[in-house]
Design goal:
Layout: H1 2-28, E1 40-45, H2 53-64, E2 70-74, E3 85-86, H3 93-96, H4 98-107, E4 111-115, H5 119-129, E5 135-139, E6 151-157, E7 185-189, H6 197-207, E8 214-227, E9 238-243, H7 249-256, E10 260-265, H8 274-287, E11 292-297, H9 298-304, H10 310-313, E12 318-327, H11 330-341
Parallel strand pairs: 1-5, 1-6, 2-4, 2-5, 6-7, 7-8, 9-10, 9-11, 11-12
Antiparallel strand pairs: 3-4, 8-12
């Protein structure tokens, strides 16, 4: 690993240097940020995937939707469409992306969801189509600086924090660690539930936040295993875990503490094919004898519940693991977010 980092480090300096110049141009006003007339919250990270943006955006929606009419705008990673697309509960995943569809199906008419590569255009179109919008959340927009935001939330993984990482291609960072300075709030995600006060203070020292920045901690909380179609008919003893996300280790460890688990891992945002599902079923038929299910993530389920898979999935016990987050000092975090957007 060290040899790889050393080999690619010169390229990381070049790539990171280019991004630093771009950020400097925004900081100096050479590149202008556009204000769109709505309070904007941005949730993102310095690294490539795996910090838990989706459940944290969902957490913000849950805590603010009683007070604001909320819109969520995403790029729509992996979709086949181009430009702005308004997301409905009946949208096809390949047209809008899995995260956008997950947000809309979970919250229904209580929120607006859209996808667009150009965030300024996307926000403007959503505001035009729904004048009652009172708050916009930008999913994965930390590096997208063309649109001004009121609250910039930076996530970093407890197990892979940005201060131990390097810029691509030597590491997984999208920009130099100094990019943390743009954050209003920094959340350390996927923390152990028994994280001590001493370790919290140690992490804060490593982050070295500015006087204007607040640091919070969050942990994963797993709920029920939910069947795609009907109630589970038998107790679970054996699990075939199927994932297409950036970091499946926390889920795998959670399930392995209760069941015998075998894991089939696909790349992040993997577009499942009929051949993939058939191979999964072939493995499932032989890996255990009884009390067995196939479990995936709620995000992956958006890519598996399409009409093209329905005939295959109906014959097998497919489920997804409900997952939420627990934010330490959550009232303080909500107060800080509201202070910024008000």
């Amino acid at each position: 690993m060290l040899k790889k980092t050393a080999l690619f480090y010169p390229f990381s300096l070049l790539y990171g240097g280019i991004l630093s110049v771009r950020n400097l141009f925004f900081d100096c006003g050479i590149f202008r940020q556009q204000h769109v007339g709505l309070p904007i919250i941005s949730v993102g990270n310095l690294s490539v995937g795996g910090t838990g943006k989706t459940p944290h955006v969902d957490w913000i929606v849950e805590h603010l939707k009683a007070n604001y009419t909320i819109g969520i705008l995403l790029r729509g990673y992996g979709r086949s469409s181009k430009g702005f697309v308004h997301v409905s509960e009946n949208s096809r995943r390949e047209n809008v992306g899995d995260e956008a569809l997950l947000y809309k199906r979970k919250h229904g008419g209580s929120i607006d969801v859209g996808v667009c590569e150009k965030r300024v255009i996307g926000v403007e179109k959503m505001a035009e189509s729904n004048p009652s919008l009172g708050l916009m959340i930008l999913d994965d927009a930390y590096q997208h600086r063309a649109i001004a935001r009121d609250c910039n939330i930076l996530l970093t993984d407890y197990n892979n924090p940005f201060w131990k990482d390097y810029v691509l291609p030597a590491g997984r960072l999208r920009e130099f660690r100094a990019g943390k300075k743009r954050a209003d709030v920094i959340v350390v995600t996927k923390c152990p539930l028994n994280l001590s006060n001493e370790e919290q203070h140690s992490i804060k020292r490593m982050i070295a936040p500015l006087d204007t920045q607040k640091v919070f901690f969050s942990s994963i909380k797993y709920g029920e295993v939910i069947s795609f179609e009907a109630a589970l008919r038998s107790p679970i003893e054996n699990v075939l875990l199927v994932t297409g996300i950036a970091d499946a280790d926390p889920l795998k460890k959670h399930l392995a503490a209760q069941f015998h688990v075998e894991h089939i891992a696909f790349p992040d945002h993997h577009n499942f094919s009929l051949a993939d599902v058939q191979r999964i079923h072939q493995i499932f038929d032989t890996f255990a004898t009884e009390n067995k299910v196939i479990i995936t993530t709620s995000k992956d389920s958006m890519r598996l519940l399409g009409a093209e898979f329905s005939a295959l999935l109906n014959d097998y016990p497919w489920c997804y693991q409900d997952m939420r987050i627990h934010v330490w000092d959550e009232k303080e975090l909500i107060t800080e977010i509201k202070r910024k957007i008000c």
